[in-house]
Amino acid sequence: MSRSSHSESVEAGVLRTLHRIHRQLADLRERRARGPRQRRNADAHVAHQDQLLATVQNEEQAMRMAADKKQLDLKTAEAKIKDLQTKLNTASSNKEYQALREQIAATEMATSVLADEILEAFEKIDAIQPKIAEAASVLEKARQKAEQTHSEVAREMPIVESEIARLEGELRQTEVALPAEVKELYQRVVRQRGEDALAAVEGQICLGCYTGVPLNVCNHIMLGYPVFCKTCGRLLYIPEQE
Ligand SMILES: [Zn+2]
User: Fold this and answer.
1) Ligand 1 centre from 173 Cα, in Å?
2) The CATH number of the domain where 35 resides is what?
3) Ligand 1 centroid to 190 CA: how many Å?
């Protein structure tokens, strides 16, 4: 560009290019930040589903232990009845005979209650099976999804990184065209605002903050003088005309 008449003037094309690069860089940096976040979210989802499966599995385990205990109690009661029946056959008195008969009846009653409870316990164990299967299936899907997310992020990150590096190079090259006195101010705004460091002016409006830009200021911009918006501080430029 010519620097003979106005050393501080900047071609509109340079500012448009700078804004385009800053926007692309912002988008790519957001994608770069999103990768690890997506991985963390996918892993957290797997851990959560794993926990839900463990909860129903522990519930089932407790049910099986309770059922086993009742089965053991039933066997003990049945053995007791056999033992009492043997004693009944050798009872030496009517009183002893009656007492044994009552004990047998009470124990039989207890075994009947236990048998019902065991049946109920097994029904509960059957009923929880679909819940376990469902939790296992959701966990498996979460694992597959997480694996997919990890490989997608692993594939995308180097592409994003190299694209960022390429654009940062293009940015440095383009910034060479900025006069020194503008460059310092521009870089300060870039540090503060990133992609919002620049804004187009259309119909005498700053598209960054939507406030009016006076006509004489617009003319200045058209002539290539670097102008920062008085309201939002963005470096202003004229967009490409159709
Ligand atoms: Zn503005």
Assistant:
1) 26
2) 1.10.287.1490
3) 14
